[in-house]
Amino acid sequence: MWDVLESKGDELRTLGLLKAAQTLGERVYEVLEESIVDGVIAPGSHLREDEVAKQLGVSRNPVREAIQRLVHDGFVEHRPGKKGAFVHAPSDKEVQEVFHARSLLESDCARLAAGNISDVDLARLQELLGHGDAAIAAQDAKHLLELNDRFHNIVVEAADNSVIARMLGVLQRRIRWYFYQVVVTRAAGSWDQHRQIYEALRDHDGDRAAVCMMAHVMQTAATIRDHQDTVDGAGLPH
Q: How would you write 48-100 as a 3-class SS string?
């Protein structure tokens, strides 16, 4: 973890020149949040202020500020009887609640998108399907996460409902955080379902698009739940 975080420190110093309007605490928050969401810092990891500050090449004050914000946002927690902050391990209930909300919102997006989607957006989705196949073959988790976000974002944009888009925006980082742990094992089935969603959108079949999206999101939730059960059964941190 620490060698990756050290390289993040180099990025942080570069970003400091590009994002002068941000406080250092805000930039540290972005680095830590991205590292947590993308699985670089695993659930249960102990975030020691002095170690994080050393690796990022900053003082402890912006690290403390960033960790407090991460606690507020639910990515980090203070554990009773233990000193310091630890990366939160999402519970099965948390995951299921988020994906239930996502399934309702995104299935409706798919229904709306089927009536609105342009040929340009359909071409973008088709291109992503090809990139997804290549990322599956390479077992490239980070690229798969990025491609997955792009696919779903195109569908949300095509739905053209700003309220739903804002609601999904609130959930997006948490969805990515939960999904990273199964993205490679889930990839083949996930991209087969993406292809089914694409075909329903191409045919402008709103009901089929909604059903395909609902099944897709709930299957991802089930895969995450099975993974968590396996980890728990092995006696490892949840």
A: CHHHHHHHHCCCHHHHHHHHHHHHHCCCEEECCCCCCEEECCCCHHHHHHHHH
The answer to whether residue 83 is domain-embedded is yes
Q: Which residues of the chain have pLDDT under 70?
A: 1-21, 229-238
Per-residue pLDDT reduced to its tens digit, 150-205:
999 999 999 999 999 999 999 999 999 999 889 999 999 999 999 999 999 999 99
- The sheet carrying 46-47 orders its strands as 46-47, 85-87, 76-78
Residues 67, 180: one domain?
no
Distance, in Å, from the CA atom of 236 to the CA atom of 234, rounded to the nearest integer, reads: 6
Final residue of a structural domain among 37, 59, 87:
87
How many CA atoms within 13 Å lie on the side-chain side of 81? 0
Total residue count of the chain as it appears in this document: 238
- In the chain, the amino acid numbered 117 is I
CB-CB contact of 228 with 237 (8 Å) = no
